[in-house]
Amino acid sequence: MDGGFPVSLWCEETEEDQSQSNTRGSPQLRAAWDPSVSGHRVIQRLLHVEERYMPSLLYITLIQRDPERREELAKWALEVCCDCGCDEAVFPLSASLMDRYLSAYLSLPVSPYCLAAGCILIASKLTECDTVTADALCAAADYSFQLSNLQEMERIILATLRWDTAAVTPQDFLPHFLASMEERGESEQELLATLRRHSDTLAALCVCDSRFLGAPPSLVAAASLNCALRGLGSKGPAQLAVMSEMLAELCQTDLAVLQCYSDMIEFALRQRLSSGLQQSPTEKDEEVENERPGTPTDMREIDF
Hints:
This is Cyclin Dx. The protein is mainly α and 304 residues long. It has two domains: 57-160, Cyclin A, domain 1 (Orthogonal Bundle); 170-286, Cyclin A, domain 1 (Orthogonal Bundle). The protein has 13 helices and two strands. It has helices at residues 40-50, 57-65, 68-83, 90-105, 112-127, 134-140, 147-160, 170-183, 189-208, 217-232, 237-250, 255-279, 285-291, and strands spanning 14-16, 28-30. Helix 3 packs across helix 5 (112-127).
């Protein structure tokens, strides 16, 4: 064997203990980050592909006129994914599948929750090793549909989408954007991990909110990351401006558009925070207000 090419057969997968959120018991195996599958080339490929998985303009217009039903299904899907301990990539992918299916039919099926559960089941099979079970999804919907109905819905979704289910979501862009920030020496490792958690939460907020339905996933990811940077308050105005320009360049959009969507996310987050405070007991209002930081991107009080 040539000594110039060191070969290692060491398995670098690590177990992540998700006992607090994973109700399926077994820890998730994570492969180590591979720099060869990141960078400008991969981002360009994702940008080229993402347009193919956008819902139709007619569907977007109809939903934005009357968003309540779609947002109700999206929030239910998010709750189910959280309760079942799904990977963070499952929910946005399931929402994308649901939007593309509804975009084809422009009407809800007899059992909308069966549709949402079928999308979660397909997304879990695509992104997880230990997938969520069909029985768990039926139980999450209080058995408003049977196992046979869910299996039939899964087949209908796959047939409608012609088995093209590996859609591009905001979560696909986030690790590459963060890796670009790390390469340019803009952030420390600990800050990057915090940014990833906050950006995932903000991206999930955008997926639930129909106002962001027509936005490309790359723009949602960049705006979520930009909001997380603002909310953490660890960078000065000059550094924030440089990072915003870098994110706009990575997602190939105008800086003004990125700032506009960042402001929209902050406004949507304030609405969630205020609605959460209104629903809390009156005797705790003052205590919650005192504990909550004065940033618009605080993750602790979001009520989905």
